[in-house]
Amino acid sequence: MKVTDHITKGKGKTQFSFEILPPLKGQHIQSIFNNIDPLMEFNPPFIDVTYHREEYVYKNLGDGLLKKQVVKKRPGTVGICAAIQNKYNVDAIPHILCGGFSREDTENFLIDLDFLGIDNVVALRGDAVKTETYFTPEKEGHHYASELVSQISDLNKAVYLDEDLQNCSATNFCIGVGAYPEKHMEAPSLDSDIHFLKKKIKNGAEYIVTQMFFDNEKYFQFVDKCRKEGITVPIIPGLKPISTRKQLNIIPHRFHVDLPEALIKEIIKCKDNKQVRQVGVEWAIQQSKELEKAGVPILHYYSMGKSDNVKSIASALF
Questions:
Q1: What are the CA-CA distances from residue 246 to residues 182, 268, 271 (Å)?
Q2: What would the mean pLDDT of 131-143 be, rounded to a whole number?
Q3: pTM for the complete prediction?
Q4: First-last CA distance in the chain
Q5: Cα 124 from Cα 97, distance rounded (Å)
Q6: What does the pLDDT look like over 273-294, one tens digit per residue?
Q7: What does the alpha-carbon distance between residue 46 and residue 10 come to, in Å, rounded to a whole number?
Q8: What is the pLDDT of residue 51?
Q9: CB 156 within 8 A of CB 204
Q10: Reduced to 3 states, what is the DSSP secondary structure of residue 7?
Q11: Residue 276: CB partners within 8 Å, gap ≥ 6?
Q12: 187, 174 Cβ separation under 8 angstroms
């Protein structure tokens, strides 16, 4: 079922969803199931499966020779989504990136998803890899998420890359895109960010999932701006409970997200990460209650491979 249909079926009631990371190379699918199992009692309409590009280093072999060596690789998102749908009978939503994909790779990826009955995707540009200063698209790949959305929309109209194909079947993907209540790190302003978000909607995106935020006012202001600019699709808030003291520095640096002073003070007072984790849970619960009261369609949590704190939050709400 499409995400937009799940929202309609909810009849105004806020629903629960979450996002998982694929396991690292060498880990079993059971590591995924172990984190999903505790959250299924809250009846998520869908589960997002993020996608991370492989990372590599060049190993010096001597005599001026270098060997490209993969140091981080995750199993295929398609297979993970299929496993989740088969085991839990719940919609699994793969993320698909511009980075690392040519247009042909993208088309083949989408065809596989269509064969498996997966009818939702989240289209993202993706970040630059560690060896790049700025994002570099794959050869014959997309530069922007709006272009990726257009390709998916074309496939929904049975428009394939090979114009000579005949009797083509149309796909039926519901397309989600990302958005940034505090603007994307590369955007010169929030207004310019919303300008390009409108382009993604115009090209066929049907719902939005936001980057994490810790101040609900940032989300409410962002939604107001979007509505004034004529963006009418559902805007799903993405939430992440802080779990370690180190994240006080990592989150603002890596995600360019502000942390409220009240939250910072509470975390600084903690004696260890166990207490930090509890503070993160309590903060997310209060965020969630306010967002639920405001009538958001879905509360979407970034579990990052651990589900105990997300379960604590969901237990207080659903």
A1: 21, 11, 13
A2: 78
A3: 0.91
A4: 21
A5: 5
A6: 999 999 999 999 999 999 999 9
A7: 13
A8: 80
A9: yes
A10: helix
A11: 242, 243, 244, 245, 267, 270
A12: no
**Count of residues making up the chain:** 318
Tell me if residue 161 falls in helix, strand or coil: coil
pLDDT in tens, 179-216: 999 988 888 999 999 999 999 999 999 999 999 999 99
CA distances from 112 to 78, 84, 146 (A): 8, 15, 22
**Look-up: residue for tokens 């993907």?**
173
Measured CA to CA, the distance from residue 65 to residue 224 in angstroms comes to 55
Give CA angle at 210 (209, 212), nearest 5°.
130
- How sure is the predictor about 27, in pLDDT bands with cuts at 50, 70 and 90? confident
- Sequence-distant (6+) residues with CB within 8 A of 240 are 212, 284, 301, 302, 304
Give me 76's structure tokens.
Answer: 């295929």
User: Which CATH number fits the domain 3-315, given the four candidates 3.30.950.30, 3.20.20.220, 2.102.10.10, 1.20.1250.20?
Assistant: 3.20.20.220
> 259, 251 in Cβ contact below 8 A?
yes
d(C-alpha 160, C-alpha 173), whole Å = 14
Residue 178 pLDDT: 96
**Pairing between β-strand 55-62 and β-strand 65-72 as defined by DSSP bridges:** antiparallel
Could you tell me which residues are beta bridge partners of residue 66?
Answer: 60
Q: In this structure, what is the dihedral angle of CA atoms 130, 134, 136, 142, given to the nearest 10 degrees?
A: 120
Question: What confidence score (pLDDT) does residue 75 get?
Answer: 54
Residue 245 exposure: Cα atoms within 13 Å on the Cβ side: 11
Q: From the CB of residue 142, how many other CB atoms can be counted at a distance below 10 Å?
A: 23
E strand or H helix that includes residue 243: none
